[in-house]
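Throughout this chapter, every protein is written as a compact record of paired, labelled lines. The reader may check this reading against the record printed directly beneath this paragraph:
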Amino acid sequence: MERGEKNFLERLGDAIPGLSGYRARDDRRTSDKRLREYLAARLDRVGERLQAIKLETTNRGDLQGLNAIGLLDRRLHGMADSLRFATYGYSGLFDQMKIQESQLDALYAHDMKIVDAVDALEKAAGDPANAVGAMTAALQGLDDLLVERKALWDKPA
């Protein structure tokens, strides 16, 4: 890329000592946001499957089951929202100095656990006979991971 093709932030990162990693970290911020949006969309699809299970439960006249499904649905939506609106990346131009590569690597490794937990939730939603119980357990695992992720992110550098 020629000098004339670089945007202001790329030139700034090249020109100021210590900011050369700015672009890479900016890319990470974007990737982090995309990952969260992707996972939230997957949770939305699980929620759609849960609505189908709710209809089946209603047709069977299982009022106990409807209560459990309603609770599960609220938790699922709450988690999708927490993923969508979670802190991601770093918070500002000079804040990248505060987080170390090892900390980012730990966050990324934890994010992979979250991806696996969403996979497990989707699998649980695919088994209508055991969906509510299996989804409740899978959702609790995901919730625990999200709490751990927040604690990792909020940990001082």
User: Anything to note?
Assistant: The chain has a mean pLDDT of 77. Residues 29-154 form one domain.
